[in-house]
Amino acid sequence: MTNRAWRPVLDGSLAARARATVAEIAAELDRRDLPTASLADGLAGIALFHGYRARAGEAADDDATFRTLERALAQIAELSSPWLFTGYAGIGFAIQHLADVVGDTAETLAQLDDLVVQTLRAEPWAYEWELMCGAIGLGVYGLERGDHAIVARVVDILEARAEPMAVGRAWRAFDDQDDRVGHFNLGMAHGVAGVVGFLAEACTVAPRGAPLLRAAVDWLRTNERVGHARAYPGFAAPRVASRATDGWCYGDQPTALALMRAGRALGDVALVDAAAGIARRAARRTGDELATLYITTALCHGSIGQALLFHRLGETLDDDDVRACARAWYARALDELASVTEAGLQGGLAGVGLGLIAGYSVVEPTWMRMLLC
Questions:
Q1: Burial of 165 by CB count in 10 Å (0-12 exposed, 13-18 middle, 19+ buried)?
Q2: Where are the beta strands (DSSP E) in 112-200?
Q3: From CA 301, how far away is CA 304, in angstroms rounded?
């Protein structure tokens, strides 16, 4: 693995097509009147798109970034949750991440810090622990802000919610869908891969999380399968079938990235190598294998998400074959763009645009920290 600068995988006519598509997406987003301020579906995510266009030197999008964040802040009182993807922590993430573009926002961020801290003070923790709408997402906000106290509190919550298993420890999800209450989710968005990804990052500022990270990795790996299109199923629980959805939310690509980061944090070379093998196997999947998986076009579990994740894996592993896989997924995303009708980052045009910018620009997509990738 390497710390080399980010390298685009698109060039020539494919890069030109991607660049033109990004300009079209920017124009279309300017025409949209969005009712939400959130990071996943609304203005905060679209601000990230405009901000990365500015960083890539395209148009004068500093103003677009600022205007979009202003609109998000004006709607923040309408958000009913603190969460990263759907609440005010997501707006704070975007503001912090785009500080080089939008300027001094210290007062606003301090107010958002206070709101996040108030949520995390709940004792015992009565909410979900997951990335999208739970404690881990608030921990990602804390990592972005450099707030070690927020990160440490989330580690404590995960420690309290961890269940001892035959091997390692796991986290039982809860929700209002009867057939999934009490399940063990393995994905990044809602599951234990997200725990591993977060704790691997949190160990840099909260070293006491290392034993918990080790336990999470050990349990997650007991679910690994050989000879399947995906090494990791979506769930590990009686009566819950494995989801065929493949991408960031559920997939080997983000799981491999989380395990590689965990291996580096734990000094476990064998774990890093095993995760690299999972990533390379995913990049070699056949058409018949891919046909068994549900893959759309958008970031969450679509072709642009596949492209971006394989691009990240290719750079992490310095592997030209994985980069070639990413290039093929970028091309597929461009061909499928007409199927994307939503505006937002997770499931819409802003996410496609951000992915394409990463494909042809030398600007590293560090916004992927919100995805723990």
A1: middle
A2: 163-164, 169-170
A3: 8
Say which residues have a Cβ less than 8 Å from residue 139's Cβ, sequence separation at least 6. Answer: 150, 151, 154, 155, 198, 202
- Both tokens assigned to 2: 């390497």
The amino acid present at 53, given as its one-letter code, is: R
Strands 169-170 and 163-164, bridge-based pairing: antiparallel
pLDDT tens by residue, 322-333: 999 999 999 999
Nearest by Cα to 332 from 2, 64, 36, 10? 10
Neighbour-count burial for 66-96, b at 16+ CB within 10 Å, e otherwise: bbbbebbbebbeebebbbbbbbbbbbbbbbb
Secondary structure of residue 258 in the 3-state scheme: helix
The burial class, CB within 10 Å (0-12 / 13-18 / 19+), for 54 is buried
Q: What is the pLDDT of residues 34-67, one digit of tens each?
A: 889 999 999 999 999 999 999 999 866 568 898 9
Distance CA 174, CA 105 (A): 36
The total of other beta-carbon atoms located within 10 Å of residue 149's CB is 13
Paired tokens of 149: 């106290």
Round to whole Å and give the CA distance between 1 and 350. 30
- β-bridge mates for residue 302, sequence order: 296
Whether the ω angle into residue 238 lies within 30 degrees of 0, i.e. cis, is no
Give the whole-angstrom CA distance, residue 364 versus residue 206: 26
* Whole-Å CA distances, 35 to 43, 334, 353: 9, 27, 20
Cα separation, 339 vs 104, whole angstroms: 38
Residue 163's DSSP bridge partners are: 170
Tokens of 56: 């890539």
**pTM value surpassing 0.90:** yes
CA distance 1 to 177: 41
CA distance 165 to 328: 40
Task: Write down the H helix ranges in the chain.
Answer: 12-31, 43-55, 61-74, 88-97, 99-102, 106-120, 135-145, 148-161, 192-202, 210-221, 252-266, 269-283, 287-290, 303-317, 320-335, 349-360
Q: How many residues does the chain have?
A: 373
**Count of other CB atoms within 10 angstroms of residue 290:** 12
On whether the CB atoms of residues 278 and 255 are closer than 8 A, the answer is yes
